[in-house]
Amino acid sequence: MQRVDQLATCGMVAMGKNVAPYEFMKDSQKFVDVCYARWLYENGIESWAIDRQEWGFVRRVPTEGEHKTIFKTFARRTPQAVLNEIAVFAARTTGIV
User: Among 38, 49, 68, 70, which is least packed, fewest CB within 10 Å?
Assistant: First the structure.
C-alpha cells in the first residue's frame, strides 16, 4: 500500500463521507481526478493505492482498437488552470509506507 496525491476515480473505492459533493465537482469535466484530489487534500483525507494484482481487485478491462481517451484529447496538453489545481495538493506524499 502506498500513500498518493491523486487517485484514478475510474477505479477507486470510497466511503460515502469521503466523496466530494456535486457542487464542488460539477465543473471538473475531463479533470475529475485532479478536482477530487484537491477536495480530499482540503478536507484532510489521505489517499492510498493498493497493488491491484496482489489483491486481485479492480482489474483492467481489456479494450480493442484505438479509443479517444482523456489523455489523448485533453491531458497531453494540460491547461494551465488544471496545472494550477494540481499545484495545490501535489508532491505532499513522502514515499512508500
Answer: 68
The single residue listed with the C-alpha cell 480530499 is 40
DSSP-derived secondary structure letter, 28: -
**H or E element, residue 82:** helix 80-89
For the chain, which residues make up each domain, given as ranges?
2-89
Closest CA to 88 of 37, 21, 25, 26: 37
Total residues found in the chain within this entry: 97
Q: Which of 27, 20, 12 is nearest to 82 (CA)?
A: 27
Grouped pLDDT means (10 residues each) for the chain, 97 residues: 85 89 89 91 91 72 66 72 80 56
